[in-house]
Amino acid sequence: MKLLLDTHAFLWLINDDYAHLRGKTAVDLFLDNDALPYLSLASVWEMAIKIRLGKFDLQQPLADFIPQQLERNRIELLPIGFEHILHTMSLPFHHRDPFDRLLIAQASIENMTLLSADTAFVAYDVTQVW
Question: Given 17, 41, 45, 51, which is the most exposed site by the fewest CB atoms within 10 A?
Answer without folding.
Answer: 17
